[in-house]
Amino acid sequence: MLHRSDEELLAEHLAGKAGAFDVLVGRYVDGLYAFFKRVVANAAAAEDLVQETFLQVHLAAGSFDPARTFRPWLYTVAANKARDYMRARGRRPVQSLDVSWGDADGPTAGAQVEAAGTAGGEQVDGKEQIQEVRAVIAQMPEHLRLILVLGYYQRLPYVEIAEILGIPVGTVKSRLHSAVSQFAQMWLARTKNATPE
Amino acid sequence: MSSTYEHGFDARLLDLHLGHLSTSEQAELRRRIADDPGLGAQNEALATVFAALRAVQDEPVPATLLQRVTASVRNAGPAPRVVRPTDELTVATERTNGRIIRLGNVRDLAAVAALIVLAVGVGVPSLMHMRERHDRLGCSWNLAQLGRGVQQYAATFNASLPFVGWGQHQSWQPSNEPGVVMVPNRRHVYPLLLQAYILDPRLFVCPSSRGVPMPREAVRQRDDFLESRNLSYAYQNMAGVRASANDDAGLSILADENPLFDGGVPLFDAHRLPWSDPSHVNSRAHGGAGQNILTLGGHVQWTTTPLSGVNGDNIWTLDGVTEYTGHEGPRAATDSHLLK
């Protein structure tokens, strides 16, 4: 059973074969937990959302089109759960950092990436750096945070991300580019603020 | 020449750091980085940014999470079987296709030839009638497949019907109002194709219409059908109260083209429309004889009157609305208003 494809396992689960769904859960539970942990930045919520996602996949398994691929469908459900959670919590993107974004008079994002590259590593390190990175990701707008996690941390192909988020592949690339640029900008702002006077 | 996005650094560098380049592409880009100091600086900077991101490693999954997930799934009982609303239709259509396949048999060929002679003898009108019936069956098959896609979409999106968003500065018909942009109602159908709930663009085109399927290679590059002809069917107006998959199963959500609107523009004077004459108020897709309608419950039915919605609702118009500006939508989840 371990060598079965995801789609075959789901079909076997629908047919009532015991253990098939457990194998699917085993394949994806780590990845989904890491996904939710980074997107919602809350361990307890991440656990709940993993459970809710698999439960919805189980309940909707009958409507899954066998001609499609399982993983993008799973992550589509997961991304919707994450969005619902963030909206229910009333989270709004926090962008009010000291450095302006998209300001015609300010530095370009490319320059900010370069500046972040030269400044970031010198100011913070170790555990502090991890906390800082988490904080920056948590402050990013929802759509950029989602694509950064899917594209960088989950390492999903552009085509799958396009399917998950329901956007064209070109939009995936440009949005991921924006996400990395904005992370660099916010990272730079934080590390600048952390610099002792 | 390098491709760059508007934010400044070379897009290929992102592909490089995310591992989306082939070995030869990587080698070529690294040569360019070595030759171009500006590109080299961008690459170093990006490497530092990704090093910061990399510092946040995956945390161990709580030991009991796997058991809790599998237990909650077991407690939910067996996976519900989805009753395919199209099963009967599928069988009927397969039977029809079976006849076509058996045309390869000599005896069947002779029978078909005799039928053709008979048909010619009876006359061309009868032949046209048969063709229309065949197209009508193909049309109902299309709608049944689209209904299946709608149900899968709803299962993924918390019972929501396909929807791309709506705001007060949008209109589903051409508008001269300042700051108002036209968003044709057909846009809400497009996620079915873009997100691969429906894989074949031909299913959006009624065989009786003059429609042209959306080119497959263009699907991923767009957020709307290329042209109006890529969609033959009218979809529930999403500007007002939006029904969910849990609402009245008899609600009409997709049907042959609305004869009363063209590109969102009303073509009629509701007070003078001869509602008693079906040829004037039925969809023109099937010669005014009637229209195929898909309900929320997934059933496809052929009706000879537009008064086929919930409690005899007129599926072409909104309840209580006589002047259409493009902002109106249903005021109740039982009011159908199907348009492109």
List the helices and strands and how they pair.
The complex is a heterodimer of chains A (197) and B (340).
Chain A: H1 6-14, H2 20-40, H3 43-59, H4 70-88, H5 109-123, H6 126-139, H7 142-153, H8 158-165, H9 169-194
Helix pairs in contact in A: 1-2, 2-3, 2-4, 3-4, 4-8, 5-9, 6-9, 7-9, 8-9
Chain B: H1 11-17, H2 23-35, H3 37-54, H4 65-75, H5 87-101, H6 106-122, H7 124-156, E1 170-171, E2 181-182, H8 190-194, E3 233-236, E4 252-256, E5 261-262, E6 265-266, H9 278-281, E7 291-295, E8 300-303, E9 338-339
Parallel strand pairs in B: 1-2
Antiparallel strand pairs in B: 3-4, 3-9, 4-7, 5-6, 7-8
Helix pairs in contact in B: 2-3, 6-7
Protein described:
The complex is a heterodimer of chains A (197) and B (340). Chain A is mainly alpha-helical and 197 residues long. Chain A has nine helices and no strands. The longest helix of chain A has 26 residues, at 169-194. The radius of gyration of chain A is 19 Å and the shape is elongated. Chain B is 36% helix and 8% strand. In chain B, the strands form three sheets. In chain B, strands 8-7-4-3-9 form a five-stranded antiparallel sheet, covered by helices on one side. Chains A and B meet through helix 2, helix 3, helix 4, helix 5 and helix 6 of A and helix 3, helix 4 and helix 7 of B.
Structural class of chain A: mainly alpha
| Measured distance between first and last alpha carbons of chain B | 42 Å
Q: What Rg of chain A, in angstroms, do the CA atoms define?
A: 19 Å
Poorly predicted residue ranges of chain A: 91-112, 116-124
Helix content of chain A: over 70%
CATH class of the largest domain in chain A: Mainly Alpha
Biggest contact: A-B, 75 and 58 residues
Q: How would you describe the oligomerization state of the chains in this entry?
A: heterodimer
Low-confidence stretches of chain B: 1-7, 85-103
Q: Let me know the average pLDDT of chain A.
A: 80
Question: Total helix count of chain B?
Answer: 9
CATH architecture level-2 label of the largest domain in chain A: Orthogonal Bundle
Mean pLDDT of chain B: 85
Task: Choose one word for the global shape of chain B.
Answer: extended
Q: Give the DSSP E fraction of chain B (strand runs of 2 or more residues).
A: 5-15%
* Record field, number of beta strands of chain B: 9
Order of SSEs of chain A, N→C? HHHHHHHHH
